[in-house]
Each structure stands twice: as C-alpha cells, then as structure tokens.
Amino acid sequence: MPANTPHHAHRQIEIIRDELTLMLTEEPKLAPHIAKAMTALNSLEHTAIFDADSHPSRRQRGPKQAHTVEGYRIERNSDGSVLAEYRSTDAEPFRCPKPIVEATAVELSKLKQSKFIDLFEAIKFAMGERIADYHVRTALRFMKHEGLVLHERARFSPARPGSLRVAVMKVWKKLENEG
C-alpha cells in the first residue's frame, strides 16, 4: 500500500501506539512523557485519517475499484495455463496460475463468506505451499468481474448457490476458446 494513504498512516500510528504502550509497561517512570506522546499521536491520527480529503466525515471503505481492468485472457506458459488480467496501462498483466484460481473457488465455497486474509490462509493451507497474495487477489477480481463472487463489507462470498469451482471453470473454458 502506498505510504501516502490514510490507511497507511493509520497503520503506522497503531504501531507507534503499541510500542509506546509496551514502553510504558517496561518503564512506568516514563508515563508523563508517553502520555504526552500519545496525545500528540491522537491528534496526528485525527488529521491523517479525517482531514486527508475534503470529506472528513467519509472514510474510504474497501479496496479501490479496478477501473483500469480491460479484460481477462487465458495464456499458456511453461508452468501451464494462467489467467492474465490486462489493464488499460502498458503495465504487464497480473497473472494467476490455474491451480490458484481453482483453489480460491473451492476454499471460498467451503467458507461461504470470508475476509481476504482468512481465505488466503485457507488456500495456502489447502495447497501446502507458499503463494503470492496478488495471485489470490487477481483470482477474486476475475470472479467478481464475472459476477461469480460478491464483495461486501470486506468479505467475499459466492454470488449464487452451487459449485463456484464449476462456474469459474466454465468461464475459464470460454476464455480459453476465445484465445
């Protein structure tokens, strides 16, 4: 996440607050100084989060929409088939291996509804290996783009009952035939 966002600032402030609290438990004699630092930190947090844009009462929720996605294609490489997410910029497309797309569909179906981190951990466990989080994010954006997944209140869920994996593989096959 870029360092100039309110979310990043909030996270950094949380880290500082946690460290100051730890210092207080280890060195109680520093309490007056830590209290002063906490007051300044609270003021800074308010400025960073609520005064960052012209709408102080409105905080952005959830990830930004990927307005620049032009489409998806299935490509083949030495490792097999991959989903490629093309954007309107000249940037390289995000690519996600087929097994991760399938595992994302299977694990989200099992969980019914999930925050990203819980889904990501379930996929890592199911696959038994380290995977890049952007692969899972790409798979989820693809499924959302195709109307197969809902993303509400920071939770993902299948859009319809039934096998999400089967629905995803139908779209995959259609894209494969187009390419």
How would you describe the overall organization of this protein?
By secondary structure, the chain is α+β, with helices and mostly antiparallel strands. The chain has two domains: 6-50; 69-178, Arc Repressor Mutant, subunit A. It has six helices and five strands; from the N terminus they run ααβββαααββα. The protein has helices spanning 6-26, 31-50, 98-111, 116-127, 133-145, 164-178, and strands at 69-77, 80-87, 94-97, 149-152, 155-158. The strands form two sheets. It has a three-stranded antiparallel sheet with strand order 1-2-3. It is elongated and about 70 Å long.
Which key features would you list for this structure?
elongated; 179 residues; 53% helix; 2 domains; 3-stranded antiparallel beta sheet; Arc Repressor Mutant, subunit A; 16% strand; 5 strands; two-stranded antiparallel ribbon
Briefly characterize the structure.
Helices cover 53% and strands 16% of the residues. It is of the alpha+beta class and 179 residues long. It is elongated.
